[in-house]
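Bench log, entry 3. Co-assembly request; chain sequences pasted below exactly as received.
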Amino acid sequence: GQNIDQPTEMTATEGAIVQINCTYQTSGFNGLFWYQQHAGEAPTFLSYNVLDGLEEKGRFSSFLSRSKGYSYLLLKELQMKDSASYLCAVLSGGYQKVTFGTGTKLQVIP
Amino acid sequence: DAGITQSPRYKITETGRQVTLMCHQTWSHSYMFWYRQDLGHGLRLIYYSAAADITDKGEVPDGYVVSRSKTENFPLTLESATRSQTSVYFCASSESKQVQVEQFFGPGTRLTVL
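Structure output for the full assembly:
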């Protein structure tokens, strides 16, 4: 089975840096996604890690350690519009099966 | 318009009624998915389809039926709606030929079963 854990809620200050952690236990790991979901909207893709290490994309970076079953999403220079839920999702199996964590609701405060 | 659409966006129904949620994508993506999202559970896979006429169960398929006669459409039917099926339903699609198998989500259907 799959088990994905991430904090339920986080609060951070505008302009700061925040790290959202995700740990997972899964069989047949193929990769890990991060999605952003604003309240009342659909999830949108942020990043995909398949190899160990850090992937940087503008203000957002994502890290993966397959041996530790661990990933984090790093958001720099936080903006108010970054207030959203961030979903960690693991890709496994042979049919693009993605299992989602319950998400971390990030609140950015002035 | 190109993309992935869902209809209706909002639906209120009664226990025992049959309800069909529609999903349409214009990218000709091979894979399509149905998820439900509930507080405390995150997104859970109901059914998925790898191509037209190929469907399979996900994590929570009970009480749901799907079909895929055309690549672009993937309707989800609740045969006899129950209150526990009150949820937000998201359809998604992805292209199997991509190495990075990002899923593109529709806007969602908010379903209330009374």
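The interface with chain B takes residues 31, 33, 41-45, 48, 87, 89, 91, 95-103 of chain A (CB under 8 Å). The CA atoms of residues 14 and 110 of chain A lie 5 Å apart.
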